Amino acid sequence: MNAENSLKVDADRLWATIDRSAQIGRFRDTGLRRLAVSSEDKEMRDLFVAWVREDGCAVEVDAVGNIFARRPGSDPNLPPVAIGSHLDTQICGGRYDGVLGVMCGLEVIRTLNDRSIQTRRAIEVIVWTNEEGARFSPPLMGSLAFAHRLPLAQALDTKDDAGLRFGDELERIGYAGKAPLGNHPLDCYFELHIEQAPHLDREGCDIGIVVGGYKTLALRIDIRGETSHSGGTPMADRRNALVGAGYLIAGVNDIGLAYAAERGRTTSPRIECFPNLPGIIPEHVRLIVDFRHPDTAGFDRMHADIKQAIAAAEAKARVAIEVTEGWSWGTSLFAPECIELLKATAVELGIPYREMLSQAGHDAYAVAELAPSVMIFTPCRDGISHNTTEEIDRARTLPGANLLLNAALKRANRSS
Ligand code: GLV
Ligand code: MN
Ligand code: MN
Known about the structure:
Strand order of the largest sheet: 3-4-6-5-7-14-8-13
Number of helices: 12
Number of strands: 14
Order of helices and strands: HEEHEEEHEHHHEHEEHEEHEHEHEH
CATH superfamily of the largest domain: Zn peptidases
Shape: globular
Largest sheet: 8 strands, mixed
CATH class of the largest domain: Alpha Beta
CATH topology of the largest domain: Aminopeptidase
Number of domains: 2
Strand content: 15-25%
Helix content: 25-40%
Bound molecules: glyoxylic acid, manganese (II) ion
Distance between the termini: 19 Å
CATH architecture of the largest domain: 3-Layer(aba) Sandwich
Radius of gyration: 23 Å
């Protein structure tokens, strides 16, 4: 294969699917609010399932709602080459995060159909449930359950802020499937995703071959103080849980700034407070703290600093702080055989690439524990993501889609 005789996706058709998706849960004109297992998520899933059925795929849904659309191969005994991502979005998300990867998978199937290409192994497009964790925690819920890293019962029992249960909502939208969870061998897994950071865009490079992820840990933090009167309680006697949270949030952010030169990241993205009313000192705050670092040693130093910030906030606000580990990823690298396949295919296609680590969470980390996996990043404008203005450039996205197509085809047809 060379650049001339390689396969190419149909760019107009790919864009039509992305544009159609952008109408389902449209938010603030250019964005999407398509929370996991919502009515909008159902509408998008139903459309995806209708599309893949028209394209000749068999569809299975498992017990957490992951969707598997299989284009059969000539040898039904071989596990499929999988291509996946997610169709749920953040609460004020963009049109491409997750969606691009699923639609590129669909476009791979359609391009093979156009040419009547029969592959040896099946090609399967997977839609993972609740990648974002925006409505139900944790993120990567569907892929973690698939990888048996999250018990099914725990996933099904998770509640959203309105008290609705994930399992009930999954039933409501008709995606509590019958396929057994996780007993589903994969030959390998590819995920194409926008970078969600500015490097490819700034460098004018259209392909990131992702070798692994930043080591990431999210902590669930409970801060306990005591209610008392906002007027009557002397300042020195207060045990204000929200003040403890305030010190900790600022401390965590300072740690992120201190590690910025070595690309460390810290975020306190969520806070819940009780009673959260005027006139009364808050008694209980729940906080999430998320920190990330490209290497393990740096991650460990940050972790030690965060523990110190917790102790300092505890002492200064006279509160008790309890820490539970929430979710984590980024501990292992992607499969060398898949990385090499992408590199060799990019060279054949004449597409420049760079290797990189992902700073964001992806279902591929969970799948990588079961099957050789790898990711392709494509540029997004200024690295902006989890924002309704998320934007991509068509000409700079197609090389990634074509790399995915040709690499998946090679892998599906390999003899050994
Ligand atoms: C999810 O995309 C994350 O990186 O937190
Ligand atoms: Mn995503
Ligand atoms: Mn996201």
